[in-house]
Amino acid sequence: MLLAKSRVIPLSTLIAVIAGLLVITSLPSDLPYSAANSGAGGLHRLYEELGARVLYSLKDLSGYDAAGYALIVARRGGLENMVGLKSFVERGGLVIAYGSPDYIVGLLRGLGVNATFKGYVRDVMFGVDNQGYIVVNTTSRCGNIVLGNPYTLELEGALENSFAHSSMFSYVDLNGNGFYDLEEPLGQFPLGVSITSGNGHVIIVFAKNFLDNSVLDPNKQFLKCTVEGRPVLIDQSEVAGNPLELLRLVLYKQDGHAYITLMLAFILALVAYFASWK
Amino acid sequence: MKRNSRLFLPLLFSVLVIIANTTTGSTSTKDRVDCLYLLVLLDKVLDYAVRGDPVGELMSKYIVNAGVFGDLHDLHVSAYTAILDYYRVLHVTSETPFNLTSGAYRILEGLNDIGGYASRLSACSHDAEAAKALSVSVNAKLRGLRDLVYALIKVSYRARFTDAYQVRPLKDTYLPGEVVEIAIPREIRVETMEAYAWPSFLRIRDSLPRECNEVYCAYELSMPTAMELEHLGLRRYLIEQVLTVGIFAKLLNGSYLGVYLVTVKYDLPRVQVDMPSTVKRGDILEVKVLSEDFYNASLRLNGFEALNITFKPGTTVLTLDPVHYNYTLGLNTLEICVNASIRTLSHCYSRVFTVEPVHPRVGISLGDFALTWSGFLTLTISNMDVVDVHAVVDTGVFKQTITVPGGCIGQVNIFTGILPVQGLNVNIGITATRGPYDELKVSRSIYVVNVAATIILTLVSVLLSSFMSSREKSFIVALITAWKRYMPVSVRHAELEVSRLLKPYKLGLGSHVALLYYELVRRLGIRMPQVHETLREHFMEISRSPSLTLTLKKLMWKMLLIAERDLYYSKRPPLEEARRLYEDVLNAARKE
């Protein structure tokens, strides 16, 4: 009896933890920039509709023929393996990067451009549904883009590389209160730069949302036109740092079959376990 | 096993709670209008418009279609439509003066919309100081725009006006009522000379020729007086008290010829009103009016006309007796409206004053806490004034009115109820029987302890407790099952109910050894004795289990015997012996 008692608690805990893990992985991800996230901030549609490949680490880039690929990097923070990224670009790769201001400022510095965050850009006249998305003019032949939570940077010596700018009605919300204040600058601001390095180039967009599910539709044409038919790689090195998200991504890549089998096996085991108890 | 299976549920629940917390949705963004931003844009666009810069037109085309939310939308659209109209007029070069003027007239109307829009934006801006500063800038630009439109039309008129006229007296600005003589060559075949308010084209008057000589025909037109101006509803076309009048010659062939544009300057009455901002009920209100001229005026109190007066140069003092003018307690509005005269426009001076109440001097003796034996409480009202007062005392369930003569004391007995302790709201209204007094309202919350009711309740409680002490179990059973009396009660249900209620006694209430035995059973993971089992029956049942070793069985049997002695024998075994045995059993279980 004592032995039986001592087994029941850890067994229950184990079952609960496994059940929790399975339920968590079965629930939709809400991690920004995750290919397993089908919500507004995820890259699920980019992964599915463009048949993109997932990269769990930027170290894996060395195994690719850079000139034949386009890499999309979207990060919330932290600069990982800048050397690998630079090498990919210099070998002829195309990188499209966007994400948090911290990441973009770090990336620009890594590419030799000194940049400082100025503030988030708001534009009521060219705003979309008053939700922080704005229509942005580009000098690219690929047309205009829509950005979510765009911000502008003070760039030293790279303004000539600017390919996207806000409208004359936009302003920089310096204090982040969501309203215009008299001391805040009003006018056009750079929202993206294109930097050439070696044989390739990096397109950097100053926005938190650019190719996410929420804004993929209006930007799909721009993306297709820019990558010019090259296969797309999605950097998920930041997302893969979360073990649960990594599990989701791995199961997700198997089209969900392995996952469903695992889930069914677990449910059957659970039913059998409780039936034997009775 | 059942007990252990319950462990699973809290664990699963905890996991689900974590999941729920990790998968919460994103927050929604609330729609809001950034008024200061729209005001800045308006200021920028007006700046471009005043300079005739086409960027202003481009900006307006975008802005007019912007999704400005809420009730600002209509104003937003009409303001920017007016700016676009302005640009449209700037582009037109081949318009006839009348068409151009009519377009410009629409712009001038539209400028009022822009002003209204700017005021609304200023009012809803999150930074009031910044909005105020911007409003000044916007208004200055609006004035500039208005001047531009006027100039544009004047230029347009001049281009098509005849120069073949003579005006006497020739001035830049005329006085209201002043007569202007215009002489037109006879070869221009004029039917009448007409004066129009500009730019509304509302006809003010016309004139036949006064006299003609061989060369000229002379006409006389008097400029509209302030009274006339207000009668015709032309006051809204004044800009800083100046009206522009267009003089046109109606020709015999039915067409018009522009002759002259004149401006007429009107005055505002020069009056100062001085009065106290606060008066007491019954006091005389003294209003001092300093006037620089003779003016006819009317005085209104709270919107009702009180008297008509004529002010002379100097100070006029008006004493408003409260007997005739019924002031309202609190805020009152006094308006002195000066009527329009020949040169002076009408104008109203508005002042707000407060009438403070005057109450009879009365003292009320009522504390926050009171004791009563009978349920009645005596309230004393001391009237320290000379007039008699009526006092109405209301507690919600009790109401009484008394009259207390001047300088006397009155008493009211309030019934507070029969409860031992009662919270009571006492509202007292005191009104004077005569004189300019306002009603005094006093409201107090008090706690009243009814001593007699408290004693009676205590006695009844003691009696009931002593009566119930020997019937406790049956009382509780009756109490719990009473509400189910309309439901079919099975025998099994009644047994369960009784066994649940008597559970403490079955567990050996008062026997510490028995409690230790139960604790031992629980810690060994053995099932607990059922309600119908004796300890021995339970032991026989569990001792058949192979999981209990012989040593444990022997020790448990010893523990059982001690528990029985403690439960049923008059001489109880020492508790230390049971505790030692309890530890021995646990040690033996751990070793195995």
Describe this structure in words.
The complex is a heterodimer of chains A (278) and B (592). With 278 residues, chain A is an alpha/beta fold. Chain A has a domain at 67-236: Rossmann fold, CATH 3.40.50. Helix content of chain A is 34%, strand content 26%. Chain A is built from seven helices and 13 strands. Chain A has helices spanning 2-26, 44-49, 82-90, 101-110, 216-227, 243-253, 257-277, and strands at residues 53-55, 70-75, 94-99, 114-122, 127-128, 133-138, 145-156, 162-165, 171-173, 190-197, 200-205, 207-209, 232-235. In chain A, strands 1, 2, 3, 4, 5, 6, 7, 8, 9, 10, 11, 12 and 13 form a 13-stranded mixed sheet that branches. In chain A, strand 2, helix 3 and strand 3 form a beta-alpha-beta unit. In chain A, helix 1 (2-26) packs across helix 6. Chain A starts with a helix and ends with a helix. The model of chain A is unreliable at 1-6 (pLDDT under 50). With 592 residues, chain B is of the alpha+beta class. Chain B is 40% helix and 29% strand. Chain B contains 15 helices and 25 strands. In chain B, a hairpin with a 3-residue loop joins strand 6 and strand 7 (216-222). In chain B, helix 2 (35-50) packs antiparallel against helix 3 (54-64) and helix 9 (472-482) packs across helix 10. The longest helix of chain B is centred in the first third of the chain and has 33 residues, at 128-160. Chain B is elongated and about 155 Å long. At the A-B interface, helix 1 of A face helix 1, helix 2, helix 3 and helix 6 of B.
- Helix and strand pattern of chain A: HHEEHEHEEEEEEEEEHEHH
Helix content bin of chain B: 25-40%
Count of distinct strands of chain A: 13
Mean pLDDT of chain B: 79
Q: Regions of chain A with pLDDT < 50 over 5+ consecutive residues?
A: 1-6
Rg over CA atoms of chain A: 23 Å
Question: Which descriptors would you attach to this protein?
Answer:
heterodimer, A: 278 residues, alpha/beta, Rossmann fold, 7 helices, 13 strands, disordered N terminus, B: 592 residues, alpha+beta, five-stranded mixed sheet, 15 helices
